[in-house]
Amino acid sequence: MERFATAEPVQELVPAYDKSAERTLTGVVEEVVQLTGETPDRMQSTSLTLHTGIETVQVRLGPSWYLQQKQFLFFIGDKLEITGSKASLPSDSVITAREVKSGDRVLTLRDADGAPLWAASSQRAN
């Protein structure tokens, strides 16, 4: 069973974080995908599909290099609690994650106002 998907092109940008649309979901990871951005540096980001038992949602996490720097990996079957902002894109509804809990580990991707923490990181690794 494949546990981690490879890169594929992403056609849509991550929507701006809307704190008023923030919600917390708990579910099981069905798919993990590395998306290649359309920026000049072709930066990869990580996205996953989460099944909550009621719905299946797409979750945008952030740049793959940032997740690697924080030593956080996601696999099919992982049980996660995700806090993030729900938005609608032309093709789908997505959650832009602010915080991800996996067991006793917590990955904070954005500050309380939704600003990405990786923007302040001075050690970017491609």
Structural write-up:
The protein has 126 residues and is mainly β. It has one helix and seven strands, in the order ββββαβββ. The protein has one helix at 64-69, and strands spanning 7-9, 22-36, 44-51, 56-63, 79-89, 92-102, 105-108. A five-stranded mixed barrel has the order 2-3-4-6-5.
- Helix tally equals 1
Distance between the termini: 28 Å
Spatial extent as radius of gyration: 14 Å
- Give the CATH topology: OB fold (Dihydrolipoamide Acetyltransferase, E2P)
Report the CATH architecture: Beta Barrel
Low-confidence stretches: 1-12, 122-126
Helix content: under 10%
Number of domains: 1
The H-and-E topology, N to C, reads as EEEEHEEE
Tally of DSSP β-strands: 7
| CATH homologous superfamily classification | Nucleic acid-binding proteins
Mean pLDDT: 82
What would you call the shape? globular
Query: Major sheet: size, sense and barrel closure?
Result: 5 strands, mixed, barrel
Sum this structure up briefly.
The chain has 126 residues and is mainly beta. The protein has one domain: Beta Barrel (OB fold (Dihydrolipoamide Acetyltransferase, E2P)). It is built from one helix and seven strands, in the order E-E-E-E-H-E-E-E.
